[in-house]
Amino acid sequence: MKKKEKISSADTVIAILFLLFLIYVFSSNVKIPFAAVHNLLQGAAGFSSVTESFEKGYCEAFPNKTVFIDINGLGHRLFAQREVNGVVKLKNGMLSEGVPALPENSGFVKNADNVKVFSDWLRDRNSNLLYVQAPWKHDIYEDTNWPTGIEDYSNTNADIFLKELEIRDVNYLDLREKFHLEGGFYSKFLCTEHHWNANGGFAAFQYICEYLTDIYGEEIEKEVFDIQNYQIDTYKNGSLGYYGGRTGYLFSGFDNFSIIYPKFETNQTCEIVHKQVLRSGSFYEAIFDQSFKELPWRERGMYGMYIGGDFPLVLHKSETAKNDGTVMLFIDSFGTMVESYLTTAYQNVIAVDLRWILRNQMNVTAKELVEEYDPSNVIIMFNPNQLGYAESEQFRYGLE
């Protein structure tokens, strides 16, 4: 009974806050739509024009919808309700969301088959393939941070997919395992969105470099992936991520956002092909999109500062990296940090997001990109939310 009363009280408070919000919005903006109606009536306009102008005026006069999101989030926070708009507040205060369960026979088998065909085709070209499993914000082993009753199948789905790759003898690196064994799993993630932070992205880069050197015999100087050779700048309370936008900052709080960049000399370019953007100079100048610093605070998800976001095709060239080989990555948004740091090791880094290749109607396949750029190593890296969908464009390589 007490639990029911608590929920009822929370609903009451949220309703009161919402009512106050409506009063505020109405009193602030009521003049605009009514002025539109008055002016049209004075001009003897038709009724359809009146209603059209009224709707347009009211929508334009409703800039405060984010206030309602904030108030709604505050109400949930006051009464310790952990789920808002599909976003879950974990017991450690970080935000996440559950990944749905998928049948084992949904798309896992087909996707793994496609990776195997791609891997064999690359091997015939003397190219190595490595699948990297990025983590979701849910520790691979027993995790006491997830609230009771909130279901998340991210690790289950990833386990199914990695098992299918293992059956097919496809090389993979499981960062979930690495992050758990290293300790401080959640310290590698941003609070207000699903992505890892710079510490997590750099750690992923380190583990990938270790794999490439130990298993594939690549020549990468250890100094390149030693964090002691990098500068760390932190923007305190500088970032409000995707989850924060959905729940309101009064529920989510803000992230301290750090960027990590080399102390050693770098000279490179970053070309975002479909946007015809070319940045050049040091790692700092080429990699970081400085415009994110100037965004209004509600839009300042600083994760996008790396590269500028996830794009269909990004070409990196470095004059200072020692390895003259080419690495091609097929990634989702988790890959932008790894893509960035690999430019310190390789002279040529090519990042491909097949989702955006398709959506931007760029008529090119993974096979054709490999044939054009001839990478010595190909890395496929996705977070668990990309896995198990039969029609996923992320697993179409032009060899089907």
UniProtKB/TrEMBL annotation:
<keyword id="KW-0574">Periplasm</keyword>
<feature type="domain" description="AlgX/AlgJ SGNH hydrolase-like">
    <location>
        <begin position="108"/>
        <end position="229"/>
    </location>
</feature>
<dbReference type="GO" id="GO:0042597">
    <property type="term" value="C:periplasmic space"/>
</dbReference>
<keyword id="KW-0016">Alginate biosynthesis</keyword>
<protein>
    <recommendedName>
        <fullName>AlgX/AlgJ SGNH hydrolase-like domain-containing protein</fullName>
    </recommendedName>
</protein>
<dbReference type="Pfam" id="PF16822">
    <property type="entry name" value="ALGX"/>
</dbReference>
<keyword id="KW-0808">Transferase</keyword>
<dbReference type="GO" id="GO:0042121">
    <property type="term" value="P:alginic acid biosynthetic process"/>
</dbReference>
<dbReference type="InterPro" id="IPR031811">
    <property type="entry name" value="ALGX/ALGJ_SGNH-like"/>
</dbReference>
<keyword id="KW-0732">Signal</keyword>
<comment type="pathway">
    <text>Glycan biosynthesis; alginate biosynthesis.</text>
</comment>
<dbReference type="GO" id="GO:0016740">
    <property type="term" value="F:transferase activity"/>
</dbReference>
